[in-house]
């Protein structure tokens, strides 16, 4: 339906599997002609290389670095030492080396990511307009902050979908940009 409306399709599949399986999934979605597909950067370089190779020519493949619902402490609990910032930078570099088009990161890192990858495509979720409920997100910034810091695409879910008047909420956010 979205495709029939002529709107670009963002498939946030967050693929995370061995290279052969991820490549098969990428081939299976050719029919949808997605503009953007996500894979987990922590799946490794070979997986990302094969994902990109199997994607349609017009599909941007972006690597999810570290979920915006996690902070430094959550990262440590997964067995990874160091800060969220450092982890995102490491996975950004790996995504770039693998030939991806860009990454997914929080608005707290997008300025640094943009500084080291000038022509990358950066998807930023975890966005909250001032005063709106944070919910399960931990690394949040406002949509305006993310845009000013170099985000290519803003992902805004519940502040719009759970608003009493979603269309009005979207307009109010747009007015801040
Ligand atoms: O690190 C990530 C990666 C993806 N998401 C996705 O973005 C939206 C955010 O929804 P909100 O309601 O605005 O929190 C959701 O679909 C997530 O799966 C993310 O939040 N963080």
From TrEMBL:
Catalytic activity: orotidine 5'-phosphate + H(+) = UMP + CO2
Top-rank lineage group of the source organism: Bacteria
Protein name: Orotidine 5'-phosphate decarboxylase
GO BP terms, alphabetized: 'de novo' pyrimidine nucleobase biosynthetic process; 'de novo' UMP biosynthetic process
Organism for this UniProt entry: Qipengyuania flava
One GO cellular component, as annotated: cytosol
Record's keyword terms, sorted: Decarboxylase, Lyase, Pyrimidine biosynthesis
GO molecular function: orotidine-5'-phosphate decarboxylase activity
Domain Orotidine 5'-phosphate decarboxylase: start-end pairs: 3-173
CDD domains xrefs: OMP_decarboxylase_like (cd04725)
Pathway in which the depicted protein is active: Pyrimidine metabolism; UMP biosynthesis via de novo pathway; UMP from orotate: step 2/2
Pfam family, one: OMPdecase
Residues engaged in binding substrate: 68, 128, 137, 157-158
EC class name: lyase
Family that this chain belongs to: Belongs to the OMP decarboxylase family.
PANTHER family, per database record: OROTIDINE 5'-PHOSPHATE DECARBOXYLASE
Its job: Catalyzes the decarboxylation of orotidine 5'-monophosphate (OMP) to uridine 5'-monophosphate (UMP).
EC number: 4.1.1.23
InterPro entries membership: Aldolase_TIM, OMPdecase, OMPdecase_AS, OMPdeCOase_dom, RibuloseP-bd_barrel
Active site: 12, 14, 17
């Amino acid at each position: 339906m979205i495709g029939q409306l002529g709107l670009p399709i963002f498939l946030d599949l967050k693929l995370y599997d061995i290279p052969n399986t991820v490549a098969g999934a990428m081939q299976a979605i050719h029919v949808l002609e997605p503009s953007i597909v996500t894979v987990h950067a922590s799946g490794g370089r070979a997986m990302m290389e094969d994902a990109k190779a199997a994607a349609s020519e017009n599909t941007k493949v972006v690597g999810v670095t570290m979920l915006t619902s996690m902070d430094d402490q959550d990262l440590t609990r997964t067995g990874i030492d160091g800060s969220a910032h450092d982890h995102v930078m490491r996975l950004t570099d790996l995504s770039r080396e693998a030939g991806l088009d860009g990454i997914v990161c929080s608005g707290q890192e997008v300025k640094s990511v943009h500084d080291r990858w000038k022509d990358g495509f950066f998807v930023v979720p975890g966005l909250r307009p001032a005063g709106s409920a944070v919910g399960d997100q931990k690394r949040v910034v406002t949509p305006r902050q993310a845009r000013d810091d170099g985000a290519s695409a803003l992902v805004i879910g519940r502040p719009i979908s759970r608003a009493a008047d979603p269309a009005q909420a979207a307009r109010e956010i747009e007015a801040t940009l």
